[in-house]
Amino acid sequence: MDLVAPGLSRWTVPHPDWEPADGGPGGWEPDVACLRLDSPDGVVLIDPLAPPNGTDEATRFWEELDGDVAGSGRPVTVVVTLHWHLRSTVEIAERYASKPGVRVWAIDQVAERLGDVVTDVFDDGERLPGGVVGLGPVPIDSSDVDADGVVEEAALWLADQRAVVAGDILVGTPEGLRVWWSDRGDPVYERRVAPFVRRLAELPVEIVLPAHGDPVMSGGSLAFERALAASPWAR
Question: Helix, strand, or coil here: 58?
Fold first, then answer.
């Protein structure tokens, strides 16, 4: 794990379902990012994906997490930004269910799609354990739509670390941070997505942590403004 801010660590793991056709311009690369926040409320995991079972990396991951969870004595918190990012949440929930317990947080649509694994639903602006603030929902660009024709995710604001966490609405690219959307002229983009990213830019943010691509380690507000001015990341 790499420490990106006080108490906040980031790690990457190859996604088990990634295929070469997923990569390239407009796509995403095999390594996906996950986050861990160590707080007075206990360990907070955001979109966690454990290394593959049977590897040395997995052994180290679970040994370290087991020790820190036991040391905190507080329930583990998992935050899932969108339903595709369930990842290792079920395994974590089962591992720590009896002691010290697990709470899984998500927005309403994610809870509807994932069912009983989500224990707590959060609203826009709500404070979660660890001082994490949920923002959204915001639609993402996807062909896997719900009955209303949209898939939604949440972004997260970590004020103490001056960091924004994003699932699939933003992506780190070779040209910098970009909005992951196919058509900037799409009414949904104009009505909901662009205003949401502008809202993020107004935060006193330095660090931007997308699930896909490189993070922004300084000048986060400017990175959001540049992302809005640039063409979206699209095939």
Answer: helix
Fold of domain 2-229: Metallo-beta-lactamase; Chain A (3.60.15)
Count how many Cα atoms sit within 13 Å of the Cα of residue 162 in the half-sphere of its side chain: 12
d(CA 180, CA 193): 10
Distance between CA atoms of 220 and 66, rounded to whole angstroms?
A: 33
pLDDT in tens, 175-189: 999 999 988 888 889
Which residues have CB under 8 Å from 195's CB, separation 6+? none
Rounded CA gap, 122 and 232, in Å? 28
Weakly modelled stretches of the chain, pLDDT under 70: 143-149, 235
**What is the residue extent of each domain of the chain?**
2-229
